[in-house]
Amino acid sequence: LKYSKNSYRVYIMHKPNQKRLQIDFDFSGFANADFERIEVPTNYKGNFSKEHVQLLSNVRNQNYDQLYFFQEMDPVLLSIIKTLKKTKQTCEICLFQDGLKPYNRMKGYSIGMLKWDIQIWKWLWRNGVKEVKPFKLLHTKKYAYTDEVDTVYLTFPDAYINWNNKVIKKIEFCNHAVFKATLEKLFGWDDKMLPINQSVILYMTQPMHHNPNLEFDFLKMLKSQLNRPLILKLHPLTSRESIEKYKSIADDVFVVNSVISAEIFIMNLNDSIIVSLNSTSMFYNSPNNRYYYVSNLFMDKIKRLSRYKFNESPSKHIKMVKQIEDIK
């Protein structure tokens, strides 16, 4: 929430299965903001919890000019912005970029996705948060579909198709040194977290449950081709078995099992090659490194990727490779 004198009230919604939000953040670098962690129990077949009702009351009764939020598909956040727009019509509702969703165009609905949307809409209606346009369900696969959203903030607005004519604003990064120092303080960065910081490959792993050897085979080829030390920034769901397989690739393969954002690792690298399926941690361009998306190499092998039309990187500094030899 942003107040009239450029001060902020920041709510961090804690969920038990999100390890990144369980670390101890150091907020002392933000002099103009107050932070509060909250936990909102949800039962999508029942009523709003008392914590949910209290949160709606707290937000509704404060005097602010703008509300910024991420995760448009989050049911609790949907309940908040829809409730607020009825009581504070002058408040500007701002959606901040959530991953690749603004740039990924879904080809269509999956049955599971449709069932989830229907369940959530029924839950909101049961608790008095009513959507008066039932055919909006046809648009939930698109970004910024919510009527209550006034402004959309994006890192790469030129790569976004503004299908419903929202106000679009560009996210501008502050000075590199200031941004880096702020993030390091926030997450409690220690240089020892990065085994090597020069001329390496940094790869962000992505569990591929239906074919666990797929990523392993790719990494073996990548390591052989580039002949550089390989640092693996693990996904939280990476299995112990996979970790041991990764380590067996070569002696100079290093595994980083940390919930700290990958952006900080990238900022501390020099003359390095950054590779991922399509991680948005690579949106921030630390110019001494080179960046590659490899999702095209797995498009016909990973079911969830086949649902998207994502042929070009939204950023000029990230190259979408068509073959592993393109990574140099």
Write a concise keyword list for the protein shown above:
globular; alpha/beta; 24% helix; 4-stranded parallel beta sheet; 6-stranded parallel beta sheet
Textual characterization of the structure:
This protein has 328 residues and is an alpha/beta fold. It is 24% helix and 17% strand. It has seven helices and 14 strands. Strand 3, helix 2 and strand 4 (92-96) form a beta-alpha-beta unit. The mean pLDDT is 87.
For the record, give the distance between the C-alpha atoms at the N and C termini, rounded to a whole number: 44 Å
Percent of sequence in beta strands: 15-25%
Tell me how many strands there are. 14
Oligomer state of the chains in this structure: single chain
Strand and helix order:
EEHEHEEHEEHEHEHEHEEEE
Can you tell me the residue ranges where pLDDT is under 50 for at least 5 consecutive residues?
none
Structural shape: globular
Structural class: alpha/beta
Give me the side-by-side strand order of the main sheet. 10-9-8-11-12-14
The radius of gyration computed from the alpha-carbon positions, rounded to a whole number of angstroms, is 21 Å
The largest sheet, given as strand count, sense and whether it forms a barrel, is: 6 strands, parallel
Helical fraction: 10-25%
Helical run tally: 7
